[in-house]
Amino acid sequence: MRIFYVDDDENDRLLLAKAVRKAELPIVLDTADSGRAALATLTKKTALPDLLLLDIKMPEMSGFDLFGALKAAGVAHIPVVMFSSSSEARDVQRAKDMGAHAYCVKPTGLDEIVEFIKRLYWGWVRQQIPCEWPEQTATRDDRRRPR
Question: What three-state secondary structure class fits 85?
């Protein structure tokens, strides 16, 4: 399985890479630190990933902007999972409206991220994205979970 993860936060990229190694599954992880870098890579790449994990809140080009640009560039057939610390109803609804396959709230610790990676991998094998859409009625306190 080939995953392309786009996140401007270097610590989040490193943590996900560590979780992928710890999960010990046949996963190749590619990353980009911005939407623009990801767009440039994905529109030139001949071997496209099996799954895109897109952070939402990035400077210059958000995950939503990147998703729209990928659709316009004809790369919309790759499953997209919006992967954010936000569970705000407007973000979740926008992801649904754009056609994202899932919206996953980022787990907070390494062990939880390893479990997320395992669910992601086995869901991909079974052709099911293993995240449920966050509830639209999130309270103000659980909209911002710690990273």
Answer: coil
